[in-house]
Automatic annotation (TrEMBL):
Alphabetical list of Gene3D superfamilies matching this protein: 3.40.630.30
Domain of life: Bacteria
Domain N-acetyltransferase: 30-180
Lineage summary: Bacteria, Bacillati, Bacillota, Clostridia, Eubacteriales
UniProt name for this protein: GNAT family N-acetyltransferase
GO molecular function, one term: acyltransferase activity, transferring groups other than amino-acyl groups
Amino acid sequence: MNYELKELNENNLETERLYLFPLQAKYLELAIKDYKRMQLDLGLNIARQELIKILKYAMEIRLKRILEDPKNYLWLTCWAIIHKEDNKIIGFVIVKGVPNEIGEVIIGYGIDEEEYRRNKYATEAVNGLVNWMFENPKVNAVIADTDKGNIASHRVLRNLGAFIFKEDDELIWWRIEKLK
């Protein structure tokens, strides 16, 4: 199947099997209201009819942040993980803010579609976005937190060279450092 994304621009990233598409405010808003319509408007095949509750909430927060700081939307948005061959969204990487004073950026990620899990798509997507982030001289490290029991996410982060730098009863915080 040919890639049909209608909004190709210089901000999209490409990996071997995926496109990473940063959702602008208009697409976040549309996804929150009508996820199916957002996918159709982007020229994608429908992955699912509605967003899962936690992702909808994350997008509401991202939309609010982007409306407050539109020039930094790439650092405040959800990046759709689009499977090239199937032309559909299979998950998201969420960037939670601009680099802080010591050059850290926090992300979250997930592959929503069950049939795409355990195929290294999360590793490929996160690696693609981390590489893009490390091109920015203000970024020194990428941080991700995971539930202690989320072994699949632990594997993704280990594969990317992340190390544990903090944990509590529920969460583990991982750090990927920029190579100097």
